Amino acid sequence: MQPGGSMEDLMAQVGAMQQQLLAAQAEIAATAVEGQAGGGLVRITATGDGQVTSVSIDPKVVDPEDVDTLQDLVLGALEDLANNTSAVAQQKMGPLAGGMPGLPGF
């Protein structure tokens, strides 16, 4: 809070910040995010809040003699998805992550 600022001003800033936070969270939840592995042979799509919506596996990687490779590709796609989801959240929340200027802890 700047010198001379009132409690009402602070509360208005907090209220505005809460609204921005809610809007950013809704935007993140509505964003489709994809993770992939094996050059796109395995793709997993989810919403920004982590709900998996689709899994696509190219038939080329389905080998009953080599299940380990397919499992590794799925894990790689999930890891990529997690990284991409985190990046989307950071992008959408970035301005809000800094908190309120001049107030420690906000």
Automatic annotation (TrEMBL):
Organism encoding this protein: Tsukamurella soli
Keywords on record: Cytoplasm, DNA-binding
Entry protein name: Nucleoid-associated protein GCM10023147_09820
Coiled coil spans: none
A Pfam family annotated for this UniProt entry: YbaB_DNA_bd
Protein family: Belongs to the YbaB/EbfC family.
Domain of life: Bacteria
HAMAP family in the record: DNA_YbaB_EbfC
Function recorded in the entry: Binds to DNA and alters its conformation. May be involved in regulation of gene expression, nucleoid organization and DNA protection.
InterPro entries for this protein: YbaB-like_sf, YbaB/EbfC
Subunit architecture: Homodimer.
Compartment(s): Cytoplasm, Nucleoid
